[in-house]
Amino acid sequence: MRRAALALVTGLSLMALPACAATASPASPARSSVSATPSEGFNAADVMFLQMMIPHQRQGIEMARLATTRAVRGQVKALASAVETTQRDEVHTMTAWLIGWGRPVAADPRAHAAHGGLHVTSPAEIATLRTMDGDGFERRFLNVMIAHQHNAIDMARTEIGTGLNAQVKSLARRVDQSRSAQIGQMLAELN
């Protein structure tokens, strides 16, 4: 069961990679329909989603990097590695889109107060994770990451419902699917 869940999460995570990898550098050959700058229009919801997801994803990357060296079980380390790779590529893509649109990558956090503020894990929680290792780290990491990925799903679903740009909405659908699968695997690892 756990192997099947890991395969599912890894597969979903890797589905996003070719699209994101196509934007890795201006000289890289295009391998998908996703471009560095989506060609169609965008709205404020698209911009807000990207600006909120970038710091959220960076936190996920930071926590995943901790887990690749501090977790005990190979399944948790493999999940963390997949999270890091996928979210790093997504941050690259989202950053390129905002720059291409002439929008700031980092918005004033107060600008999103009406939308519930930035959905990030508290810096204190990440600092606590940095002090832990072994079984204690692994259990806390899984619990914190489950909550963190729920926030990503909430933001993605808001984008799907209110965004305009088809490529950004497609990314949001991939975030919803992959994070939901990751949460399922993490819950299985906690049991």
UniProtKB/TrEMBL annotation:
Sorted UniProt keywords: Signal
Signal peptide: 1-21
Source species, domain of life: Bacteria
Gene3D superfamilies: 1.20.1260.10
Coiled coil (UniProt feature): none
InterPro entries from the UniProt entry: DUF305_CopM-like (IPR005183), Ferritin-like (IPR012347)
Keyword DNA-binding: no
Domain DUF305: 46-187
UniProt xrefs under PANTHER family: SLL0788 PROTEIN
Designated name of the protein: DUF305 domain-containing protein
